[in-house]
Amino acid sequence: MFRGIGLAGVERGDDISDGAAAALQKMQDAQAGGVAEQTEPFRGEFDLLARAIGRCHGVAAPSRAPASQKILLDNIAIQKYSVKRKMRYRMRVAHRLTLSLAALAAVSAALPLPARAQQPLTLDSAVRMALEHNPELRAAGEDDRAAAARAAQSRAAWFPRLDFSQGFTRSDNPVFVFGTLLTQRRFTAANFGLSSLNTPHALDNFDTRFTANMTLFDSGRTWLRTRVAERQKTAADYELEQARQDLILRVVQAYFGVVVALEDLSAAQDGLKSAQANRERIAAFEHAGQVVTSDLLSAQVFEAQARDRELRAENAVAVARLSLARELGVEPAALGEPSAGLTEPSEIPGGIEEWDNEAVRARPLLRAVEMQADAARKGEKLAKVEFGPSIGLFSEFERDALTLGGPSGTNWTAGVRLNWNIFAGGADRNRAAEAAAEKRKAEDQLEWVRSGVRLELRRAYLESGAAAARAAAARQSADQARESLRIIENRYQAGLVTITELLRAEEAVVEARTGYVAAVGDWYAARASLERAAGKLTADSPLLLAGEKP
Questions:
Q1: pLDDT score of 210
Q2: Using CA atoms in the order 71, 73, 76, 78, what is the torsion angle rounded to 10 degrees?
């Protein structure tokens, strides 16, 4: 009867229930006192409140029987207690849920945001990124700056040199005391006493000096040293430019290594799809009794081989991306997908003699060795002028005082000095012989590098032409392989060829496609090597323009 009491009814009837319980208690007290007429007012109040309770809690009004009234109030009290416990439990659950959601929000905020979609990576942008971030190129740049600093050091010999020194001396040496008293302007007649001269008291001296020196003539040493340092600085500039071009070549090779690896992966994936479709078709034929079980087994083996080829292609892509990221000086995750496609190879502009002349004229490595050979020639001259004299000016200002800031005596000295080595045990002659050997070595090295540059140029020129020819042959082979597969598929369905021929034709398509991609990639690498050999592979080279033929 009272099981329908709900949470909403209890919430609305809490106050009414408390009043009903009070009225019932008064009525029971009056009955216990034996005053029946005094129970009627409380009974009427209780009836009203009991009906109100029933409306609030959705139950029927109880009868006037004490047992019924007591049951009503007991059930209401039980329901109120149960609902309040449920409310407290729900509040605890809500509190815990709120804390959990707050913790989840904090953890979510601490987690990194999903990476944005990578921008396409053009060859031009990859080269510029490498020129900015590659650590090896930065190290070469430091070598260049060090050479510039050495050249500036050599020019410093043209200017006067000024030095400052501050010293403190305490001694009772008679000569020191006698001379220091003079320089401090403190010498008196009393200092001529024999005891003062022979056993003087210890004396302090603060010695402040300014010294200046300037070379007037050194038989050309400074001029030659400056010329040698400047040639070495120019050589370092050319070496830095050569390092840039070497880096650009490696970036081109690594970039198209990724492009070729992605094309190989695409071919492997297409080959796997074809193998899967072929296996399903042969399985249907085998189920229908049109082919033998060995054909299905061969198709399954071919599918496994295609899956293995796909895995190896995926690994090749990962390795190629690592290599490119290393050259660019960035993390592999920061690389975008290469956007340059493999266009058809074009003819090499100009003949081989034009490229050879350009290499001899503009190759940075060759120019650097030329500068080093010139520096070695001037180094030989420098070793010879070491036999000559040098003339220089010198001057000195001195302040001597008993205390650092006290009274002092000052003096100065100035003069001209001639230095000329007469004998040094043969060291000068041996330095000259060493310099002559270094000059001959540099000239031989220059000739060797010049012939190597010309050989490298001609090899790159020939490889570019051969790569273009291989790419044309590979393209034709790929077209023929696809047509051959189409014919063999039709003949296999007609039962005219075996499964072995079909699988061989499918493998030939994949091999021809990957061979064409590799040939085009080799052509790009050969063209980049040709431009590097000629000293033309700069950041503005047309070869680096994505989507355009060089």
A1: 97
A2: -70
CA–CA separation, 327 and 248 (whole Å): 9
Under the banding of pLDDT at 50, 70 and 90, the label for residue 110 is very low
Q: What is the distance between the terminal CA atoms of the chain, rounded to a whole angstrom?
A: 95
Longest dimension (CA), the chain: 152
- Reported for 450-455, long-range contacts at CB under 8 A and 24+ positions apart, including other chains, are 450/360, 450/366, 450/369, 453/359, 453/360, 453/363, 453/365, 453/366, 453/533, 454/356, 454/359, 454/360
Angle of helix 499-533 versus helix 427-493 axis, rounded to 10:
150
Q: Which helix (H) or strand (E) holds 32?
A: helix 7-32
Indicate the Cα dihedral angle 374, 375, 376, 377, nearest 10°.
50
For residues 302 and 322, what is the distance between their CA atoms, to the nearest angstrom? 31
- pLDDT at residue 28 in the model: 60
Q: Tell me the two tokens of residue 163.
A: 């030095």
| In contact, 409 and 399? CB cutoff 8 Å | yes
Question: pTM for the complete prediction?
Answer: 0.69
Mean pLDDT of 109-127: 65
CA–CA separation, 184 and 167 (whole Å): 14
Amino acid sitting at position 405: G
**CA 310 – CA 509 distance, rounded (Å):** 15
Query: Residue 252 and residue 263: Cα distance in Å, rounded?
Result: 16
How far apart (Å, rounded) are the C-alpha atoms in residues 120 and 258? 13
Say if residues 397 and 209 touch (Cβ distance below 8 Å). Answer: yes
Residue with the bigger pLDDT between 93 and 517: it is: 517
Who's near 245: CB < 8 A, 6+ residues apart?
364, 532, 535, 537, 538
SS in 3 state form for 64-117?
Answer: CCHHHHHHHHHHHHHHHHHHHHHHHHHHHHHHHHHHHHHHHHHHHHHCCCCCCC
Per-residue tokens: 533: 């050999």
| Cα torsion through 427, 432, 435, 437, rounded to 10 | -100
Give all strands of the β-sheet with 161-171 in edge-to-edge order.
161-171, 203-217, 390-401, 408-419
Q: Which two tokens stand for residue 386?
A: 């070491």
Which CATH number is 125-163+223-337+348-386+421-536 given? 1.20.1600.10
Q: Residue 348 contacts by C-beta under 8 Å, 6 or more apart in sequence? A: 355, 461, 464, 465, 527, 530
Could you count the other beta carbons within 10 Å of the beta carbon of residue 203?
Answer: 18
The residue ranges of every structural domain in the chain are 7-110, 125-163+223-337+348-386+421-536
Task: Decide if 137 contacts 131 (C-beta within 8 A).
Answer: yes
| Range in 135-149, 259-273, 278-292 the model is least confident about | 278-292
